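User: Hey, my collaborator sent me this sequence without any context and asked if I could get a structure. I don't really work with proteins. Can you help?
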Amino acid sequence: MSRSPIHRRALIVAVLAFSVFLPLSSSALDAEDFGGLVGFTIIAYTSVKGEYTGVAPRTSIALDNGMVFEFSTGFSTYTYRPKAILFAKTLSDKESGRSGDASGSPMVYKVLIEDKLYDGRRVR
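Assistant: No problem. I've predicted the 3D structure and written it out in structure-token form, which is a compact way to encode the shape of the chain:
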């Protein structure tokens, strides 16, 4: 069975994304941690720019791909240029509380950095 380039790319991204989980310590993510990702799609695999000391509420984190996120939760750690996986989900009009005639679709983001999954707001 021949796969299209889009299917191959999706497969490669999925393998890269889940290979991040293999070397994790005993605090590794388990199936329960992924329950909140139903309906989300992996949109990028990148790294945090420079030193990563964790996040604090309303602190911006810049990524190598140019995206910048702000998180509502906090966590302290230290790593240099950890890998990050970005997940996104387009909200339906019902989920976002909008009427069906509004233009544009609101996005919800989650960012996995090391073994922590954050709710993020894209700043740039």
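In plain terms: The helical segments are 5-19, 93-96. You can pass these tokens on to your collaborator as they are.
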